[in-house]
């Protein structure tokens, strides 16, 4: 029977492991913070917003543990250049249309791996002299398990097409290979990841993915006056028919379309326009129409003004459509 | 990742319409409307709640950027900014639900990026001065008044929820006061520049006389003297702010 005082890490090795954990967690926290502004989908934005603080607390707890292990407080240390390369690759997904890659990197690769490493560490830690570390591990495990479950729920919500699912799979495989090559967050391998199973939800900890998805889907039918609805229908029909002349009938006399308009309209001819935004500006309405062509997606921002019993477009602005379809 | 990011890089769902603040104001004035929603009707309050909701969204994004943009700042600074991200992300949810409570929806009014533009200082001290003292100070003014109006309207949902947000905002102002001092210790020039940046923001959000000292029911945005004091503003700073509002165009 092994001695109750047998252990697998000496004090210096324990401090080194803690610095490796802190590097991964601190960098993940900073990346999540930076990504919030670059992520269009509300559900993913809120998810990241909630998890930045949890991750900061984990990094802080690891950093405070260090002086108890005869090391300098709040120091992060990568396990090796491979881990730095892995996190550089994670961080590279910064374009607005890369939300899937961002969520896969954190919630299908890094956090499940951290969870597995923490669980393995906790299982092998000495119960007599390592409880200060064990308490931090237990706290981080509970949070990471919740995070992974919430991230997976948001990913399932966002992965709507086979092409998106394929993108997610490819990204996961690419990043997983980098993480394996790095030997994981400790550099010591083997590189594993944990599933989360059922997550106990007794305390309201504010990262309920179902609520975030509900907020993203909460837009009610657009409140349009019947005359405006008719005008939009006719304007949209002209666009669908690829008939710029008929579309121009709805423009106010002072509006002069720019040279790009015809080009955009030709690219999306035959598409059925979809209203994706309707904002009020006094009596005027700002309407966004999205047109998905075979090769190009265009969003037209139109400012409609009431003129007697009719509505006219007083200003419009074509632009490339965002990657985000209305939920 | 780029550091810092430009205002037009803020990623949004299609349902939000983004416009320059000055264009929104101009188009409202042309229709005989006040450029900034008053608090005289439920509809105007709804519009203000929508403006606050997008402001909270930008505040969450801004605090997130402060976590990312300043890796060399003291760790406790990063911790405070991370805490602020969490707070602001809950505020976004609170204001979306308040918007729904008032019969509104996300995207019902245009989003302006004037707050974000003010939040992009490249120096950490200037950013906390501008964001945590300038903009969060403004938030204290607006929320304090909204709590009062909600109480008067008999809307306990609005009153209670906004009061919790106000408590958080006072904490953020306090963080700003703390970090403005700590980050500029021994560097009076850096402190001067940071305060100057904050003052340009204060001046801008006096909104030509819309923010001023006065009763909640009378002035469009009333200065929350007590909340500001709790956040670490000195009496002298509050008096100076009030004085700047008296220099504005409507006086």
Strand arrangement in the largest pleated sheet of chain B: 1-2
Shape annotation of chain B: globular
Number of strands of chain A: 4
Strand content of chain B: under 5%
- The value of Rg of chain B in angstroms is 17 Å
Helix content of chain B: 55-70%
Brief digest:
The complex is a heterodimer of chains A (about 325) and B (about 250). Chain A has about 325 residues and is α+β, with helices and mostly antiparallel strands.
Describe the structure.
The complex is a heterodimer of chains A (327) and B (251). Chain A is built from 10 helices and 4 strands. Chain A has 327 residues and is an alpha+beta fold. Chain A has a 4-stranded antiparallel beta sheet with strand order 1-2-3-4. Chain A starts with 10 loop residues before the first helix and ends in a 7-residue tail after the last strand. Chain B contains 9 helices and 2 strands; from the N terminus they run H-H-H-H-H-H-H-E-E-H-H. The model of chain B has no long low-confidence stretch (mean pLDDT 93). With 251 residues, chain B is mainly α. At the A-B interface, helix 1, helix 2, helix 7, strand 1 and strand 2 of A face helix 1, helix 2 and helix 3 of B.
What descriptive keywords fit this protein?
heterodimer, A: 327 residues, alpha+beta, four-stranded antiparallel β-sheet, B: 251 residues, mainly alpha, 9 helices, 65% helix, 2% strand, globular
